[in-house]
Amino acid sequence: KKLKELQEETDQLLTSKILYQMKNLLKFTGALSVILLLLGVTFKMTHTIGAGVVLVLGAVLFAFIFLPTTVALKFKDQDTKDNKLLTTVGFLIAIIAVVGCLFKVMHWPYADILRVSSIVAFLVFFVPLYYYVKTKKPETKFNALMNAMIMASSGILLFAMTF
Predict the structure, then answer these.
(1) What is the dihedral sign for C-alpha 122, 128, 133, 139?
(2) Cα-Cα-Cα-Cα dihedral of 80, 83, 86, 88, to 10°?
(3) Of 71, 75, 63, 61, nearest to 15 (Cα)?
(4) pTM score
(5) CA end-to-end span of the chain
(6) Burial of 139 (0-12, 13-18, 19+ CB in 10 A)
(7) Which one of 89, 97, 124, 129 counts the least CB within 10 Å of its CB?
(8) Which residue in 69, 38, 36, 68 sits closest to 53, CA to CA?
(9) 109 burial class (0-12, 13-18, 19+ CB within 10 angstroms)?
């Protein structure tokens, strides 16, 4: 019995150390990606040399390090264990949207396809899934409806701006 308690305490200590490291990585990559994206967009607007490199680094850091780390931490959270499908779908749509925006700013091919597909996936898959998952609890039903309407309106307006 004592040995089992010791093992559980050791597992808890190791897990908390990993969570601490992941949170530090999240803070660092989040701040760095925001700075790089801001600099990249500013450099791109002023036609400064190196703007593309800075912009691509910021977008890649955000889409492929910051977002996955956020999802990994969300999966460790007790509240989101029921919402794994919702979190995963949102994460994938966010990656497609970030890559689509990067492609559009850099004038690369398939930018419009990526952006439109991310908006359509958001409207068709994420918003109804969000509403379905969040209305299971009666106490969050009203907030879920309001959030779903705000998300749907925002997605429709984004979709209208693409044409």
Answers:
(1) positive
(2) 60
(3) 75
(4) 0.82
(5) 66
(6) exposed
(7) 124
(8) 36
(9) exposed
pLDDT for 81: 59
What count of residues does the chain have?
A: 163
Q: CA 133: distance to chain centroid?
A: 18
CA atoms within 13 A on the CB side of 62: 22
Q: How many CB atoms lie within 10 A of CB 60?
A: 16
pLDDT for the residue 8: 79
> Which residues, in sequence order, are CB contacts of 43 under 8 Å at separation 6+?
50, 51, 54, 55
Over residues 24-75, the pLDDT tens digits come to 899 999 999 999 999 999 999 999 999 999 999 999 999 999 999 988 888 8
The residues, ordered by sequence, that sit 6+ positions from 27 with a Cβ below 8 Å of its Cβ are none
* Residue 85 reports pLDDT greater than 90: no
Measure the CA–CA gap between 12 and 10, rounded to whole angstroms: 5
For residue 86, count other CB atoms closer than 10 A to its CB: 18
Four-point Cα dihedral 38, 42, 43, 44, nearest 10:
100
CA distance 25 to 33: 12
